[in-house]
Amino acid sequence: PAASVVVPAPHVDSAGTRAKDGPRSGPPDSASSAKVSPDTSKAPPSDTSASKEKRKDKKPKKTPFLTDSAQYIGPDGEFIRKPYKPKWSFDAVNAAIGVDNYYGAGGLAYLTLSDLMGDQRISFALSINGSIENTNGYVEYAYLPYRTDFTAMAFQESQNSAYLSFNRDGSNGVFVNDATDKRYGLGLGMRYPFSPFTRVEGGLFARFTERTTVRDVYDSTLSYDSTYTEHTRVDALLPSVAWVHDNAQWGIVGPVAGRRLMAGVQYLPPIFQDSMSYVKAEADARFYKEIRKRYTFALRVAGGFSEAVSGYANPHRYYVGGESYTFNAHANYDHLPDNLAQFYFSDLDFPLRGYDVFDFRGTRKFLTNAEFRFPFVNELTFGWPVPFSITDVMGNLFADYGGAWSTGNPFEQLGLGLGYGWRLNLGVFVLKYSRAWPTAGPVGARSGPRSYWSLGSEF
User: Fold this and answer.
1) Less crowded by CB within 10 Å, the N or C end of the chain?
2) How far out from the chain centre does Cα 312 lie?
3) Is the pLDDT of residue 403 over 60?
4) C-alpha distances out from residue 451 to 345, 372, 441, 459, Å
């Protein structure tokens, strides 16, 4: 007969104590032979149809991570490739409304949006001054997925020349307070970086300007006689190219170390008009040396010239003198542009402190600025009537030398200004005060020191 093996069950006595494993004597008692019913008090509830439907309707939690690899891994084990579709979102939105005592009600808005990968960007700017006729608008599209960046832009501007400076005796026809200038144009731009600090950039801009002048004519008795309207156009196509290098490190009011270099050329061909053509070349070099923490020596050297081409008129002029974005007006009204074309094609260059805007003018320019920048006030605290503190006021000592000319000895047509100033970063902008004394100047320039209150960072 086949052999059988009997494995004895563990013995549990009447007290519920388990005996050691081993053979038992005698018949099994009721405790060992009885079946033990499982404890159902802790078992999960039965899976009813209602609970099944509830779990089925429950949506999975959203997560930025891909939890299921089947969503992005193909059958071959490689990532699934799909064409990228731009997803646009706003980067910045700003708007404001107000009332002006000249134009009336108006408002302005600025917004920019880009796609998810930052490959494309669109910017809008709009300013309405009382009416649709006095509306300024700007739109730009930037295509940025490759090393070379491309931009396209369009704009429209409308401005009454009452906001411009005008000659006190009314003899200058460029700056009048009864004309409206409307400008619109298109532009294309390109930037190619050689490194994070160096690039070449170019642009092609078409600009169209029309001035409408409305004048009321009075007779010798100051009685109204008539009204006449005059239209003047200044249209242009302006291609340009420039090389730029910039590795400057910035402090709280301006650069403190590094250098900023630029060299560029601009050309006005006789396109859209048949009376003007010129070529302009200029360069600007700025060097910053931090002697010790917050003590910096800054040096700038800039120069440029413009020349007429093929016998056409050259409307371009350089105007050198004064400080930019000042609260207190300072201008030499005897050196204003001679015509509307000069106004739109000319360049202002700052700073040449100790002088007024338009003091120096010509088709050539030279300007150098040397500054020593240092901490002036670390902290100034007031306790009454309102507790507040002024911190990190920077001071500077400067010497500006330069000017503009067309003919003659340039050294006889340059000026030197010496002075000091302080700068305070208010968070939104930098407030600057400068006091300068001229040592020499062009014919017609006023003498004596000048003070400048202005906004903007150091050069």
Assistant:
1) N
2) 37
3) yes
4) 29, 19, 17, 18
